[in-house]
Amino acid sequence: MLLILLEGLLNKLGIIVVFVFLLSKSNFFKRYVLKEKLSLYDKIFFSFVFGGLGILFTYWGIPVHGGIANSRSIVVVAAGMLGGTAVGTGAGLIAGIHRMFVRGGPLTSFACGISTIIGGLIGGRFKKYIEEKQDKWLYGILIGIIVETIQMVIILLISRPFDEAFYLVRLIFMPMTFINAMGIGIFVILIEQIYDEQEKAGALKAQLALNIANCTLPYLRKGLNEFSAQETAEIIYKMTGSAAVAITNTEKILAHVGLGDDHHKKGDNIRTNITKRVIEEGRFMVAQERDEIDCINKNCSLKSVIVVPLKEQEKTIGTLKLYKNRENSITSSDIELAKGLGHLFSTQLELSQIDYQKELLSQSEIKALQAQIQPHFLFNALNTIVSFCRTDPNQARELLLKLSYYLRSSFKNQEDFIPLEKEIQLVEAYLSIEQARFSERLKVEYDIEPNMNIAIPPLILQPIVENAVKHGLLPKSEGGTVKISAYSENKEAIIKIKDDGVGMSKDQVQCLLDTRCKKEGVGVSNVNNRLQSIYGHKLEIDSDLGHGTTVIIRIPLKGCKKVESDISG
Q1: C-alpha to C-alpha distance for 394 and 388, rounded to whole angstroms
Q2: What sign for the dihedral angle of Cα 100, 106, 110, 115?
Q3: Any idea what DSSP says for residue 561?
Q4: What is the distance between the alpha carbons of residues 33 and 138, in angstroms, rounded to a whole number?
Q5: Helices of type H across 221-331
Q6: Residue range 166-204, pLDDT digits in tens
Q7: What is the pLDDT of residue 247?
């Protein structure tokens, strides 16, 4: 009997797995799984869906000695693990109450009904716990075992006569526990595949956002105007396949490309209330239905939209809008793409406010150092920030502020000398971004003597620190530590940048200081030349191949310009 029961349940499990696999491939189900927050309607609807499946699996069970061997607990527990306590309990109540009154298996009707409700509740309560784990399917199997064990205990406590209940439990415990626990585990695996697909889609969207940012950079660097907005909107429209793309300032439509351009016209006042709300509140918004867009043209063919703010110094100066021509078609990856573009464009617009030309004409040496801020660093930094937008928005915001400060500080310095504190702050901003990218591979230590209120030439430390990170530490698989020290000694200010990276040979050190050698760029050699021309001291570089490098800058304190200690940022 046991083998016959096990064989029957295995056959049914195979059919259930096929059903769940097909369900997991449907866009409707994927949208439900990937929703960050379920509405009340969603919770009620899916409680009935999973509860109905629980009823179906009850009828599909195998009658056994006054009970029914079935897989009802798979869908009820899965409902809780997907939708939380409300959905799990709702599905459990629907399937459980039905089980109490269904014909067949009268010995366990009430006990199995109660255990079904408890199973949905347990699945919901374990939802957040499982989300934090790596091997989620193992925890799914464990929950299945717990739920089935509870069901058997309830049968023994409630069902009478006890002898028959005990005989039934001995007969069905092992096969039902094995089959249903495995079913829940398989269900979790299939759901995880949906999340994995979403992650891959998100990575592609992030790459797409960077490609778009690269293409739009020449236009947005000129500021937000009708020309730059039109060129940017056309690029996004071609690269994303959106039904329409629009860019506005706080009052007017600067560009609209795609469907709806017959009434969403460049130069017109903003026509949709959702756009006005984004400008007022400074946060992104999604409209999944045409009525939510609230376009004043009732025949508008645009059915859904994601609107993100464009900002400068935390002030909203406009919006970016990606439209679809179908309702409920804005996916989470579309939202991530739009948010990523909004962040990138906001950064580009901030950069547009910097007066590059005046700086490049007035300081030729700093021009050479600024050229060392390679595009790959900017886009790597932005890529890092995009990845944090979904997982840690607060960290993403902090990194954007660091990047903004770093770029502003790198380009705006017009003075011959700046406070040492400001130069340290620039280095800290750069290293914060690099630490976010490389995590444990990059460690940073500071040892700055208090009250070193001196002024130094701008962009003296950053090229050296960047060289230590890029060419000293990162070539090592385990990374390493860069330490920045500043102290006074023998009437000199000593600034030391030390790393425990791969080190350099004597020829490499010589090449690093030679402006004619282009292997490692010209940043460090320019620093060396500027120090020599101002103070008569060269950089001191002590490097041991395979063990690290120490670079020392000596600033004479005699005649050194002093600055106030309360330096403003």
Answers
A1: 8
A2: negative
A3: P
A4: 20
A5: 226-240, 273-281, 290-293
A6: 988 888 888 888 888 888 888 888 888 777 777 776 667
A7: 94
- How far apart CA 222 and CA 100 sit, in angstroms, is 71
The secondary element (H helix, E strand) that includes residue 448 is strand 442-448
φ, ψ of residue 280 in degrees (nearest 5) = -70, -40
- Token pair for residue 286? 């999604």
CB atoms within 10 A of CB 223: 16
Q: Please report the pLDDT score of residue 444 as a whole number.
A: 92
Tokens for 293, please give them. Answer: 């867009």
Amino acid in the structure at residue 156: L
Show Cβ contacts of residue 531 under 8 Å, excluding neighbours closer than 6 positions.
Answer: 457, 460, 537, 538, 539, 553
Q: How confident is the model at residue 362 (pLDDT cuts 50, 70, 90)?
A: very low
CA atoms within 13 A on the CB side of 262: 7
> Cα–Cα distance between 496 and 503 in angstroms, integer?
16
* CA-CA-CA-CA dihedral for 315, 318, 322, 326, to nearest 10: 100
For residue range 60-89, what is the model confidence (pLDDT) as tens digits?
878 887 778 788 888 899 888 888 899 999
Q: pTM to 2 decimals?
A: 0.43
Provide the H-helix boundaries in 326-468. 332-351, 356-362, 364-370, 375-391, 393-412, 420-438, 462-467
pLDDT digits (tens, 9 = 90+) for 451-471: 888 888 888 898 899 889 988
Tokens at residue 154, please? 């309830």
What's the helix, strand, coil split of the chain in %, to 5?
A: 60, 15, 25
The torsion of the CA quartet 348, 349, 355, 357, rounded to 10 degrees, works out to: 50
Amino acid, single-letter form, for residue 516: R
> At residue 205, does pLDDT exceed 60?
yes
Token pair recorded at residue 493: 């200010």
